[in-house]
């Protein structure tokens, strides 16, 4: 595995720094784009790394995975009455589909869906962002994980479009809590800072039928894990989900901080990070690294 990761890093070296960092969040605009890290965690819990795998970064939309895990734990199958399980085909922050489909988001990984999930967690938890932080601390084995308040506050200041989605869902009866309070928790989830090692370990249960080797406890049932992985495969990479499925063929979730988690069911989970993004908002070098990985191991869920 070490030789494999070293070869992949060498192969994508020309792409590192190519693209643009996320500029609409001032704190992310300052990140050095010339960084790359990758970490793999197998189903026994062994971690292999290359590059800047221990550097912490803003996980952004990768947080939607753990937010969903919390909601599934509390709501089970009833969750899918409020959020769909279909690919969107539109930008992740679109309001058009939400209006057309009477306030029911297409899936939990577009912004409207993630906000609906955050609203559901708000109904069950006193401090949802603390609950999610504690969950990833437990799954990763890193008790020092924290959200960056500067990033969270910066996102809150630019909340207009997300607030519009929440209020539109509220108009259709699919949002039950105070919009501003839910948005605060939502942005603190996005502002959580983790490394590739942390995220590879925290997502390992998705490769292990819902069981976390690190905590030695089940996180989700086998069936729930299958459902989450299916959604990651169809809807985890913004507008690039179809291309990602075609080229990479793994369940995955990206964030505009430059991170991507991916799952090889039954074998390992991994996280790759490089801050410079392609035009779809996904890590340019990260997507290339995952494409190289699946080509080299000749493995795909398809």
TrEMBL record:
<comment type="similarity">
    <text>Belongs to the glutaminase family.</text>
</comment>
<keyword id="KW-0378">Hydrolase</keyword>
<dbReference type="InterPro" id="IPR012338">
    <property type="entry name" value="Beta-lactam/transpept-like"/>
</dbReference>
<feature type="binding site">
    <location>
        <position position="111"/>
    </location>
    <ligand>
        <name>substrate</name>
    </ligand>
</feature>
<comment type="subunit">
    <text>Homotetramer.</text>
</comment>
<keyword id="KW-0007">Acetylation</keyword>
<feature type="binding site">
    <location>
        <position position="256"/>
    </location>
    <ligand>
        <name>substrate</name>
    </ligand>
</feature>
<feature type="binding site">
    <location>
        <position position="186"/>
    </location>
    <ligand>
        <name>substrate</name>
    </ligand>
</feature>
<dbReference type="Pfam" id="PF04960">
    <property type="entry name" value="Glutaminase"/>
</dbReference>
<dbReference type="InterPro" id="IPR015868">
    <property type="entry name" value="Glutaminase"/>
</dbReference>
<feature type="binding site">
    <location>
        <position position="238"/>
    </location>
    <ligand>
        <name>substrate</name>
    </ligand>
</feature>
<feature type="binding site">
    <location>
        <position position="155"/>
    </location>
    <ligand>
        <name>substrate</name>
    </ligand>
</feature>
<feature type="binding site">
    <location>
        <position position="162"/>
    </location>
    <ligand>
        <name>substrate</name>
    </ligand>
</feature>
<protein>
    <recommendedName>
        <fullName>Glutaminase</fullName>
        <ecNumber>3.5.1.2</ecNumber>
    </recommendedName>
</protein>
<feature type="binding site">
    <location>
        <position position="61"/>
    </location>
    <ligand>
        <name>substrate</name>
    </ligand>
</feature>
<dbReference type="GO" id="GO:0004359">
    <property type="term" value="F:glutaminase activity"/>
</dbReference>
